[in-house]
Known about the structure:
Blueprint (H helix, E strand, L loop, with lengths): L8 E7 L18 H9 L1 E7 L5 H10 L3 H4 L6 E2 L7 H7 L2 E7 L23 H5 L15 E6 L6 E2 H9 L14 E3 L4 E4 L7 H15 L5 E7 L7 E4 L40 H31 L6 E7 L19 H4 E2 L1 E4 L7 E8 L3 H9 L25 H4 L9 E5 L11 E5 L3 E6 L4 E6 L17 H18 L7 E2 L2
Parallel strand pairs: 1-9, 1-11, 2-14, 4-5, 4-9, 8-10
Antiparallel strand pairs: 2-12, 2-13, 3-19, 5-6, 7-8, 11-13, 15-16, 16-17, 17-18
Amino acid sequence: MMNQKSRPNFLVFIVDQMNSFSLGYHGNPDVRTPNIDKLCTEGASFNRAYCSNPVCSPSRATLHTGLTPRQHGLITNGCKLTDQITTLPQVLADNGFRTHCVGKIHLQPFSNSDFGEEGRPLSWESRDLWNEGVIKGLPLPYYGYQTVDYVGGHVNYVNGDYVNDVEAQSPGTRAKLSRAEAYHSVLKSQAWRMPIDPELHYNHWIVDRSMDFLDSVPEGDNFFLVTSFPDPHHPFAACRPYSEMYDPNEITLPETWNEDEDLCGYLKRDVNASHSSWNETALRESIAQTYGMITHIDDNVGRLLQHLDQTGHTDNTIVVFLSDHGEYLGSHHLLLKGKWPYEQVVRVPFIWKDPKASARGRSDQIASLLDFVPTVLDYVEIDQTPFKLRAEGKGITPTLPGKSLRSWIEGNTGSSSAALVEYDEDFYEGHVCRYRMLIESRFKVCLYGGTGQGVLLDLERDPCERHNRWADNSYTNIRNDMLAKLSDRLAWTDRFDTPRYCGA
C-alpha cells in the first residue's frame, strides 16, 4: 500500500434524484450549473453512468459497499443495511483516513419508529424518533464514518442535526420549508416555493459543516469527506432567489412529456399526482423548481471547492460528483422514480476529477455506481479483500461486481462494459414489482420477474425509448443474447447469506 503522504484525499458530492440530463455540460439548454460543469471539463464526466437501483437506499448502500442490492441486502427503501457488511468508509478509516459525512445518508428507514432488541431503535434515521428527541445524534462510528453531521428527509420532512441547529439559530425556520408556508404552489404535495433564506437552508448548512471539517483536519492527514445533499429530490421546492430563477413558461419540456404509452402490458400507470394526473402547468413549475434546486446545489458546490482551495487541499484531493438515481421529470409523462426502465431514472451524473490526471471531459463509456468503490480502492492501493463475497463452505471470494475506472481516467483506453440495474420496489407500489436490467452501449433489456414480460430497447435507433422490441422477430437473437448476458451477471452477483432488516 502507498504511504500516507502520497495517498489522495477524497471529497465526494452526492445528490439525490438527479438524472444525467440535468447538467448544462451534458446538453441541458436551460439549467445553469457552472461549478459542476467546470468539474466535468477539468476531470472525467461519464455521461452514460447508471445507478444500481433507481431508489435511494439500495443505491446509497451500493456506494458504501461496492455490492449490488441483492448482495448487500438493502433491496428497497424501508430496509436497514446490516452492520455485518463492510463499508468503504470503514476500510478507509482502518487505513488511516479521517472519514466524515455531512447531510443525507439513508442507509436506514426514515419512517420507522419501532424499537428493536434491547431497546435500541431499529432505525437511527427515523424522523419520529429525532423529532421526539429520542435520538439526538447518530451512534459513532456510523457505517464507518468516524463523525457525522446528519440531515434526514427532504424539504418539509427534514430532520436531524440540521433541524436542531437551525431552530436554535432561527426559531421557525423548519416550518418555512413546508407547503403550508409556501408563497406559491401547484401540484398538491409536490411543487411549491419556500420563503426561507438561502443561508438558513440545509444546502448552506451542509457546506458550512463540510468546511468546518476541512478546517479540523490536521496537516498531513488523509480524509474522506462525503457532502450529501437531500436535493433535488421531490418535493420540487426551492427557496429565493432560486425559486424565481427559471421562468416555467420558458422551460424546455422533454420530447416525450405528453406521451404515456406503456412499454408492455405489465406496466400500468398509477393515476395520481406523482405520475399521470398533472398538467403542463404543473410540469413546468416542477421542472423550474427542480432546476432552481440544482443551481442552489451548484452554488454550494462552488463554495466548498473554493474552501478546498483556500485550505490547500485541492492539489491532493480527488473530487467526485454523483447522484444515487435519476428522476423522470416529465419524460414519458412521468414524475419521480419507479418501475419504468427509462434512461432518465437510471442514468446519473458521475464525475471524477483527479488533480494529477489530464482532463478527459465527457465520455460515453458505460459506467456504473458499482464502479465507485473499486475505483477509490485502486487510487489508495487497498485490495478488495475486506469486501469480497462469502461463498458458504466453498472458500470462494469473487471480486466486487464493479470495475476500477482509474486507468481510463488517467488517459488510457478502455472498452465499455455493461451496467446492471436491480429494482425490488414494493414499498410504494402496494404490490411486488421487480425487474433486472442490463444496459450495453446500444441495447437495454429489462425482465420483469414473475410476469413473463420484458422490455428490449434499441438506444441507438430509438433514443427516446418509444418502441419495445421484446416481441419484434427481427430482434429475437439480440433479445436472447442480452438475456443470456443478464443471466450470467445475475448468477455471478447473486447472494443469499446477507441478513435483511426491514421496517415500515
